[in-house]
Design brief:
This protein has about 400 residues and is mainly beta. The chain folds into three domains: about 80 residues, no CATH class; about 190 residues, Oxidoreductase, molybdopterin-binding domain (Sulfite Oxidase, Chain A, domain 2, Alpha-Beta Complex); about 110 residues, Immunoglobulin-like (Sandwich). It has seven helices and 26 strands. The chain starts with a helix and ends with a strand. The structure holds ligand MTE and molybdenum atom. The site of ligand MTE has 20 residues, from β5.
Length: about 400
């Protein structure tokens, strides 16, 4: 299908977001990837490329746009808006001009009073709150799955941490009156499929999760309006849960008496039952063997070292970030001998239990020659990163301890 056909498929009045003329393809550059091998070919394809309103990101696909954040942007606990990753399932994106008439409708068979809000209505009718939280794609690090699995071959950068400002979903829902018997809320956003056969991206959340005080309808990110590609003018923020539930350009929220059975709930974003620990059941969406992915697992990323870098055997710094699904980080340990000995890193300021936590360690010295550096985070609930991948067909929840080969001289 060519571009004109795609625009036509979108229907009159909804212009496809014209990435082509706006995006400038930039010279291919080497992308440093610490501690793991991506499938052959991935890095030939993945070049640094600039989307409108963004600095250069690692392009994994162009239509729909799937761009990951380069390692260098994770040197601080807050990910800048113009380096925040971009993930879309559908190529029917919206332009800013399409979203001028944006509104959010609360409806469904489990509310007493359906309501429609403009952005100003939301800002003026409900208390405005801010929460710091990691937005991480369920498939972050999928490219490192062995055996390789289909899907966007994300490296380490399908995630970011920001402060999100908006109104509490529970306040907005309360105004519409939730009936007893509500089980889920269903979410839809303004982006569309370009082919009729493709199911629209819609998601649902259990009602108890929807009513959590930390879940917000966010209109600002790091103190600025949401970037277009990160959900302008408003998106759902579900701190502690993977980003598949963080609906961008959110236009409808239906409170339902029955589970929602759309494709993106029933067929995608599912993990084998019992494989991953979670504080949250999503029983209304369970089937015999699988359950929806829910809470983010404890994880860490070394941000100042990449494969085969040279460091001084008389001492060097290891630093990075750690995060989990909302317990907060208890410890980060570092090993420079391939996992035989571990030393506690120093944790930097706590920006909140859902946010990235910076950490660092001054290594006093190491054996000269090839060495392997590792980092392992443990959350306040005692959960820790795994040594070996818990393989699942969609490559979700990869929190394997990194192993970065270095040369100490
Ligand atoms: N409207 C809409 N919202 C969406 C998606 C989408 O395709 N469309 N993808 C979801 C997924 S799977 C992820 S990982 C996050 C990505 O958020 P970001 O693009 O702001 O980084 O958006 C979520 N919300
Ligand atoms: Mo995702």
């Amino acid at each position: 299908m060519d571009r004109r056909a795609i625009i036509k498929a979108l229907g009159a009045g909804s212009a496809a977001f014209a990435l082509g003329p706006l995006a400038r393809s930039l010279r291919a550059q080497t992308i440093a990837t610490p501690g793991a091998l991506l499938p052959a070919g991935t890095l030939d394809e993945a070049i640094l490329d600039q989307l409108p309103g963004k600095q250069k990101l690692i392009k994994l696909s162009y239509r729909p746009p799937n761009y990951e954040t380069p390692l260098a942007a994770f040197g601080h606990a807050v990910t800048p808006n113009d380096q925040f990753f971009v993930r879309y399932h559908l190529a029917g994106l919206r332009e800013l001009s399409d979203l001028k008439t944006w509104s959010l409708t609360i409806g469904g068979d489990a509310v007493d009073r359906p309501a429609t809000y403009t952005l100003d209505d939301l800002k003026h009718n409900f208390p405005v709150v801010t929460v710091a939280a990691v937005c991480q794609c369920s498939g972050n690090r999928r490219g490192f799955s062995t055996p390789h699995v289909p899907g966007v071959q994300w490296g380490y950068g399908a995630m970011g941490s920001a402060t999100w400002t908006g109104v509490r979903l529970k306040d907005v829902l309360a105004k519409s009156g939730i009936k007893t018997g509500a089980v889920e809320i269903a979410l839809n956003g303004a982006d569309l499929p370009v082919l009729e056969e493709t199911p629209d991206f819609q998601k649902s959340l259990p009602i108890d999760r929807a009513l959590d005080r930390n879940v917000i309808i966010a209109f600002a990110m790091n103190g600025e309006p949401l970037p277009l590609l990160n959900g302008y003018p408003a998106r759902l923020v579900v701190p502690g849960w993977t980003a598949t539930y963080w609906m961008k350009h959110i236009t409808t929220i239906d409170v339902r008496q029955k589970p929602f059975d759309g494709f993106w709930m029933r067929k995608a974003y599912r993990v084998p039952k019992g494989m991953f620990a979670t504080d949250f059941a999503f029983a209304s969406q369970d089937d015999d063997k699988t359950t929806p992915i829910t809470q983010i697992l404890v994880n860490s990323l070394i941000t100042n070292l990449t494969d085969h870098m040279q460091v001084s055997a008389s001492g060097f710094t290891v630093k990075g970030i750690a995060w989990d699904g909302g317990h907060g980080i208890r410890t980060v340990e570092v090993s420079v001998d391939g996992g035989n000995h571990w030393t506690h890193a120093k944790l930097a300021k706590d920006l909140g239990r859902f946010a990235f936590r910076e950490w660092g360690l001054e290594v006093a010295g190491s054996r000269p020659g090839p060495i392997t550096v590792m980092a392992r985070a443990t959350a306040v609930d005692g959960s820790t990163q795994v040594d070996r991948l818990l393989f699942n067909p969609a490559g979700y929840h990869n929190n394997v301890v990194q192993k970065i080969p270095l040369i100490a001289t």
